[in-house]
What we know:
- The chain is of the alpha+beta class.
- It has three domains: 7-46 and 158-232 and 339-388, FAD/NAD(P)-binding domain, CATH 3.50.50; 87-153 and 234-329, 2-Layer Sandwich (D-Amino Acid Oxidase, Chain A, domain 2); 397-497, Helicase, Ruva Protein, domain 3 (Orthogonal Bundle), CATH 1.10.8.
- It has helices at 18-29, 66-82, 103-115, 156-169, 217-224, 293-304, 363-377, 401-411, 417-427, 431-435, 454-464, 469-476, 487-497, and strands spanning 7-14, 34-37, 53-54, 87-95, 126-129, 145-154, 173-175, 178-186, 189-196, 201-211, 234-244, 252-256, 262-268, 272-276, 280-281, 318-326, 341-348, 351-357, 447-449, 452-453.
- A hairpin with a 2-residue loop joins strand 8 and strand 9.
- Helix 1 packs across helix 7 (363-377).
- It is globular.
Amino acid sequence: MAPPTGTPCDLLVVGGGINGAGIARDAAGRGLSVLLCERDDLAGHTSSASTKLIHGGLRYLEHFEFSLVRKALAERETLLAAAPHIMWPLEFVLPHDSHLRPAWMIRLGLLLYDHLAPRRRLTRSRSVDLRQHPAGLPLQSRFQRGFVYADGWVDDARLVVLNAVGAHEAGARVRTRTACLSLEPHGDTWVATLRRTDGMQERVQARAVVNATGPWAGIFRSEVAGIRGARDLRLIKGSHIVVPTLFDHRFAYIFQTPDRRIIFAIPFEQRFTLIGTTDVEFPDAPVAVTASEAEITYLCTAASRYFRCPVRRTDVVWTFAGLRPLQKDVIVDPAGVTRDYELELDRRDPPLLSVIGGKITTYRRLAEEVVDRIAALLGKRAPGWTAGVPLPGGDLPGGDFDEYLAQLVAERPWVDPRMLRRMTCAYGRRVERILAGAGSIDSLGREILPGLRERELEYLRDAEWAQTAEDVLWRRSKLGLHLPPGSESLLDQWINANRG
């Protein structure tokens, strides 16, 4: 048998969502040589279409998923400390609707939620009088009693990018817009054929492969890796809508619906409210998905049961949707399917491990478990390390975002404070790399779009793999919500003229 050819590495990670990026960062930090490939953009699918919460999953308590909730609750504190620029504590108001769950059941569930894991940054739950509380004003007058509890908010797409940046800086090679076409075992090594969107191909030798392709995990097993009898996934579509802001306070809402599901209404991008999500069975092969009119109507109707001002279809300024790959089980209701993850070793020699299910809150724990298993199989035992290390840009002095931002504003009065806040929320301490050496707004380059200058675009291109206007305006940022029509076309023109 002829020896395999191609670029060698210890681990090939296929899939550039949150799990793949987290695994690549953890593995590279433990000394493994890693290659991460993603056929589209980082966070191009499910990982940028979440409700953007770091949470334990209050509703999972009804399904007795105490282990999952405890694991997720413990991770909230770890993640909030790791990236205080893209993650924030957020308090949720749950108005009591006596026609649905009784008050005693909700209070008992919240007390359990408080005590399943230790907390340092987040407040405990409490009952509130909505007639006196600021969150009661936008609600219909029939809601007089409510409950408040704390979880976290996250910029999900930036969380993926920062993990990929961390992986790269630890030595991993990151290939976006690069598909894994085939995977063949050759003795104790996998030989993978990768193809970029420009048609260029590369062969890679990998001692182990992780299938982190999310909704495509089953297809990858059968069609790319040739694993027969691979277990199917259950795909659930979750859709969200964005409307002009419905309230002017700092709280978010969690609403119960008559079908016993829940939706969130969350402050979003200063001027908007994010509402979601749905749970719709998706029986077809995984594809890029959009919110259906039925889902949009469902969310508008569900929110209108609570707010004084109805949410109408004409209010919706943006929608997004994603497919959640969940473990296949006998539960009929999609909302009841477990969000916990499973790691399946499809082959041991050479190793191929598939990630099934999971949620964004537990990505770091999942990555740690994956690398524990892979490193042991490769004879490269090294302890996990990500729990106490900030993500790129998260090393703010004292971990205090507001104090750091105030210092930047004082030192750079020539930058619009709103622009500086947006950039600091995105890049954390690494905003200094964009601002380095600049003494005036013009030294940041030409303004390509309102509030977006060439120096920042060069950083996104060179350090964060942004290659299109969509990458910049809808994943590296949400500037697409704030800019006039035609902005994407103008930005693509600049990108095409200034490719690195």
